[in-house]
Fold this protein.
Amino acid sequence: MSGINTPAWANMSDQQRQAFERAVTVTTAATRLTQSYVNRVIQQLSLREFGAMGTLARKPGQGAQAIVNRRTAATMTAGNVWVADTAALTESTGTYAQSTFTYQTLATRGQVTRKIRATGRSYLDVLAEEMTLKLDDFNNALESALFIGDSGAVAGQIDGLLTQINAYATQAQVVANTTAAAGDSLTLAKLDETIDMVRGSAARSDVVIYGSYLGVRKLNAALQSQQQFNDMVEIAGGFRVRSYDGIPIVVSTGMPDDMTWSGSALSALTGESTNPTTGLVIVNKRHAWIEELTPTTMMPLARDDSQNENFDIFWDGACVLGNPLGTAVLGGISAA
C-alpha cells in the first residue's frame, strides 16, 4: 500500500526500475531531469547614450544641401556714428555670405538567414529582433558623426559639431581649460567663460552642455570640490537631467575622450593615446540643428533567393551649424 511519502520508483515494475536506475545516477540526474530556460530578452552588449540625437531640433530639408545666410556685423566706430547735425554720414555696411551643408547618406544593411529565422521561431522573431538591434548600431554611428564627422577625412560623411567649431575663425570658439598639452582638471571659471561665448546663452532654456560620461564626471568632480550642487531640469521627451547654472547637462557617447590638445587648440578629435583629453560642447539649439532630407528609414528588401532576408536602414541629412557663435567648446580636460 502506497503512502503519501512513498517514492515514485516504489510503484515501478522491476523492468522500469532497472531502466530508471541506469538512466539516473548521482552524476547524470542534474543534466537528464532538468530543462534549460533561455531568457527571451537579448542583451545588447553596448553602452550608448544618444544625447545629441535626442535634443537637437530636426528640420526638414530639400534640394541637395542646406543653405544658411550669414551676416558679418558692420564696423561702427564712435567717431563715425556720433555726428553733428550738419555732418555727412559715413557708410558702414555688414557683409553677407552663404554657408552650405551638403546632405550626406548614412546607410547599412542587415541580414537574417531563412533557416535561422525558422530555427528561432519558437523563441522570438529573429528578423524583428535583428532590425531593432541593428537600428541601435545605426543610431550610434549617427550620434558619433554629429560630433566628430569629417567630410575631409571620410568622403560622404557629414561634418559634426566639433569639426565645424574647430574650423571656424582659427578655433575662435574653443576655450582652453589649460595650456598644458596633457590637459588638466576642469575649471568652472573656464566653463563659465565658454558658456558666455555662446550667442544667446543668457536664455538658458535654449542652451545645452554635451559631454561624454567621463566629461560629465569631471564636471561633477569640479562641482563637488567647490561644494556646489547641480539641480535637475526637464528636457525634450520629458526626461529630467542634471543641470549647471540652469543649463541641462546631456551625456553623449558620441563625444570623444581621446582628443589631442595642443595647449591652445584641438589638434585632433580622436586617436590620442599618450595624453588623451576630453571636452564639453555648449550649444544654443536655435543656432545648430539636424536637417533631414530623409528621416531614418528601415526598409525590408524583396527576396531574390530562398536563403536570406535582407533589410536596409538609411538616412539623408546634415548637421547644420547655422551660426558658429551659437556654439563653443571647452577643450583641454584631462581624460586621465
